[in-house]
Amino acid sequence: MILDQFRLDDRVAVVTGAGRGLGAAIALGFAEAGADVVIAARTETDLRQVAEQVAATGRRALVVVADLADPDATAALADAAVEQFGRLDIAVNNVGGALPKPLLDTSPDDLAEAFAFNVATAHALVRAATPKMLATAGGGSIINITSTMGRLPGRAFAAYATAKAALAHYTRTAATDLSPRIRVNAIAPGSILTSALAVVADNEQMRTAMEQATPLRRLGEPGDIAAAALYLASPAGSFLTGKVLEVDGGLVAPNLTIPLPDL
C-alpha cells in the first residue's frame, strides 16, 4: 500500500532543536511513523515534554541537553544515537537563526556567526552521521531546515538570508557527494506559527497582513513541516536528493516587511 511508503518502522533519527516548534513536531511525526528519536536542544524541560509525547506513541526518545551552536556538541549526537539505539538512519538539522539587522549595521562577525550557526553545525552532524548511516543496509536521509528567506530578498535579513541560502546550496553539493547511499534534501519553511512568530501571531493586524500576502491565505503550522520531513525521510521520498522543498504557502515575495528608512 502507498501509505506503507511513509513508515519509518525501527529506524533511528536525530533531530536538533527538538524541544519545541518545528523540531518537536518533526520528532513526534517520526515517532508516530515508527522511528526512535534522539532529540537535542538547550532546555531539558522542553525536551522531556517531547519525550513524553514520543513515549505515548510507543517509541523511544533519547534526550540530549546541549548547546547546539557548538559543532562538536552537534556532531556527538550521531554517536549518541548508535550507542542508545544501535543505528542511525535519519538526521535533521533544525538549529539556526540570526536576528534581523540593517545591512550597514551587520558586521563581518555577524555574517560569520550566522554561517557558523546555520551551516557549520549542520556540516558537523552530516560528517559525523555519514559513517553511521553507511553502516546500515538502507543508507540514510539527511534533512536541512533552511528558510524562504534564503531565496526571497528582504530588508534587514542579510546575515540570516545569506546563511540559509548557503545551507540550501550546501544541501545540493552534499547530495552530490553522498549519493547514492545517502540522500540529502532540505525544507524551506515560510511563516510558521511557532514561538518565534508569536509577536506576529498575537498582533491581529500584522497576522492578517501576512496571511493576505500569502497565496494560500494562512500561516503555516509545525505539522506542515513535519509532514514534509516525513516524506523526505521515508521510502516515499526515495527518489529525491539535492532538492529544497518550499513549504511556504506559495510565497513569491516576503510576507513580512521590516520597516527601515531609505538611505
UniProtKB/TrEMBL annotation:
Annotated ranges, domain Ketoreductase: 11-190
Pfam families, sorted: adh_short_C2
Xref: Gene3D superfamilies: NAD(P)-binding Rossmann-like Domain
Oxidoreductase is among the record's keywords: yes
Assigned keywords, A-Z: Oxidoreductase
Family classification: Belongs to the short-chain dehydrogenases/reductases (SDR) family.
Name of protein: SDR family oxidoreductase
Native source organism of the sequence: Nocardia halotolerans
